[in-house]
Amino acid sequence: MKTIYIEHPHNLKKADIKETALAIGYFDGIHKGHQEVILTAKNAADEKGFQSGVMTFHPHPSVVLNKKIQHVQYITPLEDKLEQLEKLGIDCVYVVKFTESFSNLEPEEFVQQFLIDLNVKHVVAGFDFSYGKRGSGNMDSMVEHARGLFTITTVEKIEKDGEKVSSTRIRKELQNGNVGEVQRLLGRPYHVKGKVITGYQRGRTIGFPTANIAVKDEYLVPQIGVYAVRVTIQDKQYYGMASIGYNPTFENEHKKPSVEVNIFDFNGNIYDEEIKLELYEYMREEKKFSGIEELKEALRQDEENIRSYFSTTII
After folding, report:
1. Where do the domains of the chain lie?
2. Stated pTM of the model
3. For residue range 210-264, what is the model confidence (pLDDT) as tens digits?
4. Which of 13, 107, 18, 28 shows the shortest CA–CA distance to 60?
5. Which of 30, 86, 160, 192 is a good FRET partner for 174, with 20 to 30 A between their CA atoms?
6. Which CATH superfamily is domain 189-311 in?
7. C-alpha separations of 10 from 135, 145, 281 in Å
């Protein structure tokens, strides 16, 4: 997959670009609704002999348009978004830098410069996609702005249980710890990545050593609590139990929740390694225990419950 980073104004030449069937959208999450849009473009490319393409935007428009927002947490940070697009078999991805000048393009200017001038011959987007200054362009106006130079497919709303599959819905489910439902909406388990850092090493002293994960800031961290997880370390996978929270049994001065994982049947040294945590099931809320023995008993029960969960769950 070829990834092209562009911004306004760009200097790409239409003559140098293959004819493209392009899916366009922000696509945070690459959830089931996004996949419908992207695979519709891929199928159109296969049918018409075009290359398949995706156009996405970075950073999130709110960072540029809302001066109070300086940082956004994502379901799929850009690195993960590109990884998922490659898995879907896309030939080319345009990552458009979202800037103030780009946001001020009139709808017809956007279509000319970022679709027609990029040799796009077919566009696929969701029914609610908007473009141009103040989002004043939509899928109806795109027909006029295309001037017959490309064709258009509008993908209607994708629902599960009578509700639209959306990034907003997934964010709410994550904030409520409903990672099982998130997996259903994404078509894969939700994950975060981060480096293993030195922690307080208290778990080691009570028989439950944990890897402390410095989760990358771009990730939306789910509700605090204990989760059944699968851990990927150097392409090898292990089950484990992860705690997202503030360690209330011990003194914790951190305002940001910590992420710790006890990896089953593993005792290697992984400090400074980047690992991936896939969250499969929310097991219980975070609790403050009266002492070490009560904590140890809770951890033993957590391990038993999580091992049982994975023994009966098809991954």
Report:
1. 2-163, 189-311
2. 0.93
3. 999 999 999 999 999 999 999 999 999 999 999 999 865 555 555 678 899 999 9
4. 28
5. 86
6. Riboflavin kinase-like (2.40.30.30)
7. 21, 19, 45
CA 39 vs CA 86, 90, 138: distances in Å:
12, 9, 21
Using CA atoms, how far apart are residues 224 and 288, in angstroms rounded to an integer? 13
Region 2-163: CATH code: 3.40.50.620
Per-residue tokens: 110: 């956007």
Dihedral sign from CA coordinates of 106, 136, 130, 98: positive
| DSSP 8-state assignment for residue 219 | B
Residue 190: count other Cβ atoms within 10 Å of its Cβ: 26
Q: Which residue has the tokens 């940070």?
A: 77
Find tokens 């994982």 and name the residue: 261
Contact 40, 153 (CB under 8 A): yes
Comparing 2-163 with 189-311, is the CATH topology the same?
no
